[in-house]
């Protein structure tokens, strides 16, 4: 079954066409990555899926339902951006609990218990009372992921979550993100400019070029441009 579908989507600004002719179908439970050089339309595509932007043309569907005009809060998505948007004056636990304000968490557990579960999921059980500025970059991104997952979204959207980290931490966070995704079985759409990362982490990859996916395939079938 299809979780997220873009049907011939375009987004034009006054001077630029950010994306054009984007048709993609992301399956339930899939780890799907948009990869390509800077300016090829990855972030715009993710923002169209999140509902932060409306397409100039085309249709966005969640589970077959047209959501093209609906705002982000009605789309059941959790979003993590490139730069950690943690609240510096709140502890790790408070940052994660903040995510619970946006929807009813699943399963009738208390907020306190839910925060504990989420911190365990991202392997930060001992960090609940820390301030974000006392964490490493990888730990901060895991807090941001826990906060995005707090309301129990149907789809997780990640925009270059590793780009601020050095190579060693990127590799480690990559494995952690994939483990979290597998544990939850959550449909995940991931944006990166790093082809090696895309091929390592994904079930399927869309290689974007000039605002359009030019290949959509599992990593082993992606050909590399010379
Ligand atoms: P990527 O994420 O692959 O780097 P983007 O989706 O951010 O690419 O951008 C695709 C193109 O659309 C770029 O040329 C960018 O400058 C342009 N663009 C993105 N957002 C806007 C905007 N709000 N206004 C004008 N142009 C934009
Ligand atoms: P991670 O991939 O979890 O970010 P690191 O390799 O950065 O892991 O850190 C390993 C351990 O060092 C962590 O478990 C953490 O407790 C500690 N640590 C890393 N950076 C900091 C920091 N800035 N302040 C306090 N402890 C840190």
From TrEMBL:
UniProt membrane topology term: Peripheral membrane protein
GO molecular function: ABC-type tungstate transporter activity; ATP binding; ATP hydrolysis activity
UniProt GO cellular component terms: ATP-binding cassette (ABC) transporter complex
Superkingdom of the source species: Archaea
Keyword field: ATP-binding, Molybdenum, Nucleotide-binding, Transport
Residues covered by the ABC transporter domain: 4-226
First and last residue of the signal peptide: none
Listed EC numbers: 7.3.2.6
Subcellular location as annotated: Cell membrane
Record's catalysed reaction(s): tungstate(in) + ATP + H2O = tungstate(out) + ADP + phosphate + H(+)
Main location: membrane
Family: Belongs to the ABC transporter superfamily. Sulfate/tungstate importer (TC 3.A.1.6) family.
Subunit structure: The complex is composed of two ATP-binding proteins (WtpC), two transmembrane proteins (WtpB) and a solute-binding protein (WtpA).
Functional summary from the UniProt entry: Part of the ABC transporter complex WtpABC involved in molybdate/tungstate import. Responsible for energy coupling to the transport system.
Protein name in the entry: Molybdate/tungstate import ATP-binding protein WtpC
The organism of origin for this protein: Natronococcus jeotgali DSM 18795
